[in-house]
Amino acid sequence: MDDQQLTSVQSALEATTGITSRTLDSERVDFYSRGFSIDSFQFDGVPTSFVNGASFLDTAFYDRIEVVRGATGLLTGAGNPGASVNLVRKRPSEVFQAHTTLSAGSWDNYRAMADVSVPLTEDGRVRARVVGSYQDRHSWLDRYQQKKQALYAVIDADLSDDTTLSVGYDAQIIQPKGTTWGGVPRWYSDGSETHWSRSVNSAANWSHWNNTLRTAFASLEHNFDNGWNLKTHFSQQRTESDAKLFSSLGYPDRNSGEGLIPIALASRASSRQNSLDVQTSGPFSLLGREHEMVMGLMLSKRISDEYSSGFVYPSSPLGSIYQWNGDYP
């Protein structure tokens, strides 16, 4: 991810062998593997709902992204025929480490990231890591801009030689502007096919779909003398979204570009998901052979609220799409 500057979950998955994506609009992306939609996402091995905006999550927090194509019911309890994606968070090191990156790219894409890991005790048995990033970018899409802020902090403590406690928190704020909602018209009113420039943006300038994701987590791991291992992980993920979206319906006239019907939507949504994962594994002997056993328990509860205006059809005419500059009404 570092070598290829894959700074979002979307870019990382699109670079993964066997994974394809389908872009619905500027904020919504679906991922597929083996012909099936991927809806199994995990953080440090704990399953969670894949909320809107998660494809733009910053990869600065993650040491790696593990992708298993095919069903993973043997390890997760509930399999998915497409693939399972596991985002593994960075952990603190016992020695001081720090690095920062600054980058600038096409379409005013500016990004800064800092990553610091420091021991809190002389022997390194208690250690911490803090990661922060900020990105401000425009796009090949006209009038689109996205700002992204991310912060991650974690503390690991070795309670004994065999027991480690970890607590952490991460937050990401994603603020796009000029957000599209669906695509552009495929056909003219006479039935002929349209040929738009790839930079055409049918959204209004005020259109946005802001997302905030916050997660607090704690885990405890213990290694027994007989080779068995016990892991317990609890997390609470909170999400908030605020959307004011604009699009158009219909078939424009080939000559004048008129005839489209404006449509808008306003909504607010929030959710809270608590997840508990307990897993134990280890060797045992049976019938003269050595075996490995894995047992686990996963519990998850998600509560969500959403308030929406429903589809609104403004009375102000849209005018010619050929002269569209995002100013509406």
UniProtKB/TrEMBL annotation:
<dbReference type="Pfam" id="PF07715">
    <property type="entry name" value="Plug"/>
</dbReference>
<keyword id="KW-0813">Transport</keyword>
<keyword id="KW-0998">Cell outer membrane</keyword>
<dbReference type="InterPro" id="IPR012910">
    <property type="entry name" value="Plug_dom"/>
</dbReference>
<dbReference type="InterPro" id="IPR036942">
    <property type="entry name" value="Beta-barrel_TonB_sf"/>
</dbReference>
<keyword id="KW-0472">Membrane</keyword>
<protein>
    <recommendedName>
        <fullName>TonB-dependent receptor plug domain-containing protein</fullName>
    </recommendedName>
</protein>
<dbReference type="GO" id="GO:0009279">
    <property type="term" value="C:cell outer membrane"/>
</dbReference>
<keyword id="KW-0812">Transmembrane</keyword>
<dbReference type="GO" id="GO:0015344">
    <property type="term" value="F:siderophore uptake transmembrane transporter activity"/>
</dbReference>
<dbReference type="InterPro" id="IPR039426">
    <property type="entry name" value="TonB-dep_rcpt-like"/>
</dbReference>
<dbReference type="InterPro" id="IPR037066">
    <property type="entry name" value="Plug_dom_sf"/>
</dbReference>
<feature type="domain" description="TonB-dependent receptor plug">
    <location>
        <begin position="1"/>
        <end position="83"/>
    </location>
</feature>
<keyword id="KW-1134">Transmembrane beta strand</keyword>
<comment type="similarity">
    <text>Belongs to the TonB-dependent receptor family.</text>
</comment>
